[in-house]
């Protein structure tokens, strides 16, 4: 009787130890709420800042953390380093500074309100 | 003079991964990583890397070796190597990014982040969430609201695949 109880405790213990080992080695990237890079917002920002602007805006839908990162000051400075600007005009309209096909810097208006603007861009030449 | 360069070339480092595997590499290869370089400058030859797992470390050592011998002539070869290097699953890429971030190898970091960005740029937010293993923490009402605001703008443009 005593022996049975002991082996049961042992089995529970070993399963517990087993589970902690597997979370620390295999699932160290995937186990948490914010998934890969939970502890490395730098990496997420680095990736997001390389996306085209409309895609960055879409990524705000992913989760609260990403939305906060995209709205952060650091993110804006990184975009500035990559010579991209984006200025939030109101909830749904953005101005974006990007290079066009002939390598000129233009302001693009990106709107998330398609029924009003039909996603039409209004490029304006800033400097060449 | 020749003998000094020879001893310099032979100087070896030992890297220890988080799984306790040890790798011996030449110092000239290792110092491409800022983290290792700082340790080497402080006189260490044994470098424990508690945040880098064996699988990622093997790939990174391959990368460093290839890039250590960079000359004008093998430029094409390195480009093909890089292409193969990033042609892997998202989970492997994430593992490599956290390793490269810890080791401060900026050229590798740039390449990996650009690859990930290029591969997720046409994906839907749902697919991105699955790829990054993120649980959505918006309430259903909030999500419906954002979705409604964005729906018409982006409808039908997304790639839902996870690779």
From TrEMBL, chain A:
Q: Which residues form the F-box domain?
A: 40-79
Q: Which organism is it from?
A: Datura stramonium
Q: What is this protein called?
A: F-box domain-containing protein
Q: Which UniProt keywords apply?
A: Signal
Q: Which Pfam families match?
A: F-box
- Signal peptide positions on this chain: 1-22
This protein's source sits in the domain of life called: Eukaryota
> Cross-referenced InterPro entries, in alphabetical order?
F-box-like_dom_sf (IPR036047), F-box_dom (IPR001810)
TrEMBL record, chain B:
Against Pfam families, the record matches this protein to: Skp1, Skp1_POZ
Cite the InterPro entries for this sequence.
Answer: SKP1, SKP1-like, SKP1-like_dim_sf, SKP1/BTB/POZ_sf, Skp1_comp_dimer, Skp1_comp_POZ
Give the highest taxon in the source lineage.
Eukaryota
- Which part of the chain is the SKP1 component dimerisation domain? 108-153
Q: Return the SMART domains for the record.
A: Skp1
The annotated pathway is: Protein modification; protein ubiquitination
Q: List residues of the SKP1 component POZ domain.
A: 11-69
Keywords from the named record: Ubl conjugation pathway
Q: How does it assemble?
A: Part of a SCF (SKP1-cullin-F-box) protein ligase complex.
- Family, per the entry? Belongs to the SKP1 family.
Q: What does this protein do?
A: Involved in ubiquitination and subsequent proteasomal degradation of target proteins. Together with CUL1, RBX1 and a F-box protein, it forms a SCF E3 ubiquitin ligase complex. The functional specificity of this complex depends on the type of F-box protein. In the SCF complex, it serves as an adapter that links the F-box protein to CUL1.
Protein's recorded name: SKP1-like protein
Task: Tell me what organism the protein belongs to.
Answer: Datura stramonium
């Amino acid at each position: 009787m005593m022996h049975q109880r002991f082996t049961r405790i042992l089995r529970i213990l070993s399963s517990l130890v087993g589970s902690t080992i597997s979370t620390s080695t295999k699932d160290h990237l995937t186990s948490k709420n914010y998934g890969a890079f939970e502890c490395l917002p730098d990496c997420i920002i680095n990736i997001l800042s390389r996306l085209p602007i409309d895609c960055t805006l879409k990524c705000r839908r992913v989760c609260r953390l990403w939305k906060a990162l995209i709205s952060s000051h650091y993110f804006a400075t990184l975009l500035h380093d990559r010579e991209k600007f984006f200025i939030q005009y109101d909830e749904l309209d953005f101005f974006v500074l990007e290079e066009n096909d002939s390598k000129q810097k233009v302001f693009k208006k990106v709107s998330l309100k398609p029924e009003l603007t039909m996603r039409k861009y209004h490029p304006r030449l800033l400097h060449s | 003079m020749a003998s000094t360069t020879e001893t310099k070339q032979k100087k070896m480092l030992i890297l220890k991964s988080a799984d306790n595997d040890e790798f011996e590499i030449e110092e000239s290869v290792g110092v491409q990583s800022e983290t290792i370089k700082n340790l080497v400058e402080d006189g260490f030859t044994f470098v424990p890397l508690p945040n880098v797992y064996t699988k990622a470390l093997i790939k990174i050592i391959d990368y460093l070796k290839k890039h250590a011998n960079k000359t004008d002539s093998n430029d094409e070869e390195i480009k093909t190597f890089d292409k193969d290097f990033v042609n892997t699953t998202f989970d492997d890429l994430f593992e490599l990014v956290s390793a490269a971030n810890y080791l401060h190898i900026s050229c590798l970091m740039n390449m990996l982040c650009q690859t990930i960005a290029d591969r997720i740029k046409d994906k839907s937010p749902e697919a991105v969430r699955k790829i990054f293993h993120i649980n959505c923490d918006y309430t259903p009402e909030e999500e419906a609201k954002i979705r409604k605001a964005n729906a018409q703008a982006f409808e039908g443009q997304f790639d839902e695949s996870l690779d």
